[in-house]
Design brief:
This protein is mainly alpha-helical. The protein has two domains: about 80 residues, Glutaredoxin (3-Layer(aba) Sandwich), CATH 3.40.30; about 160 residues, Glutathione S-transferase Yfyf (Class Pi), Chain A, domain 2 (Up-down Bundle), CATH 1.20.1050. The chain starts with 6 loop residues before the first strand and ends in a 15-residue tail after the last helix.
Length: about 260
């Protein structure tokens, strides 16, 4: 079945999906966003990719039968076909890729801490159950929520090296702070690049961005926040918020008019 626009399969609250979405929106590429459902949506991805085994995940961009299966590849593709300033400046691609690796490591560590907390702590799992669920039913759903989080943790092998997650997260945040020393607004030169996008998204696991731009995931803002890190890195949160205000259109609320995605 053909479709008029490229399709982005994504989780609304996923930092990885947001990296791809931001790159597409920056280049004013019209696309249809299809919400991915955990586990259930994997079957659709397997059929789409003709991949019966192995891990499948989002974001995934289907550009009329040509598939781009991670945020970095989607951003590179957007740089090639879109309009606007390049997110991969000529001659600095290796630097962008290095920041992307730092982002992946840092986000993975922060996500693992959050997911393992939900999987292992019944109180945290209960807090992650949607508010619309009647309070009387929530205790019955806690084991299910914990099992789902446990399956997600297993899919991404989050328990491997769990004792190193905190140090990995802090190392990434310290590297970002050092690179922005002296009041720099951007990591590379004086314009937005994918390096900025990929590192700004890291802060979603420290203190979620305003929900005008992106919803918080399971557990809400409390579940995704790390108060001890937010208190330690307020300068990075402020930098992230300034980038969003300057370079990102809200996706919800009164200001979210004429969004590019269709």
């Amino acid at each position: 079945m053909t479709h008029a626009y490229p399709r982005l399969y994504a989780l609304p609250y996923s930092p990885w999906s947001e990296k791809a979405r931001w790159a597409l929106d920056h280049h004013r590429i019209a696309y249809e966003e299809v919400e991915h459902l955990l586990f259930v949506g994997d079957l659709r991805l397997r059929l789409l990719l003709k991949k019966p085994t192995g891990r499948v995940t989002v974001p995934l961009l289907d550009d009329h039968g040509v598939f781009f299966t991670d945020s970095l590849d989607i951003a590179r593709h957007a740089d090639e076909i879109g309009s606007g300033s390049r997110l991969f400046p000529a001659g600095r691609e290796a630097e962008v890729e290095a920041w992307n690796r730092k982002s992946e490591d840092t986000m993975s560590a922060l996500r693992a801490q959050m997911v393992l907390g939900l999987a292992d702590d019944p109180r945290a799992a209960k807090a992650a159950i949607p508010p619309a669920v009647p309070e009387a039913l929530k205790p019955l759903l806690v084991p299910i929520a914990q099992r789902v989080m446990g399956q997600f943790a297993a899919k991404y092998r989050m328990r491997d090296g769990a004792e190193k997650h905190a140090a990995t997260a802090e190392e990434g945040l310290d590297a970002l702070r050092a690179a922005l020393a002296g009041g720099k607004k951007y990591l590379l030169g004086d314009a937005l690049s994918y390096a900025d996008i990929t590192m700004a998204i890291v802060l979603q696991g420290v203190s979620p961005v305003d929900e005008r731009f992106m919803p918080a995931g399971p557990g809400g803002r409390e579940g995704w926040s790390r108060p001890e890190l937010a208190a330690r890195y307020p300068d990075l949160i402020a930098w992230r918020d300034e980038l969003y205000t300057k370079h990102r259109r809200p996706t919800r609320g009164p200001a979210a008019d004429a969004r590019i995605a269709v």
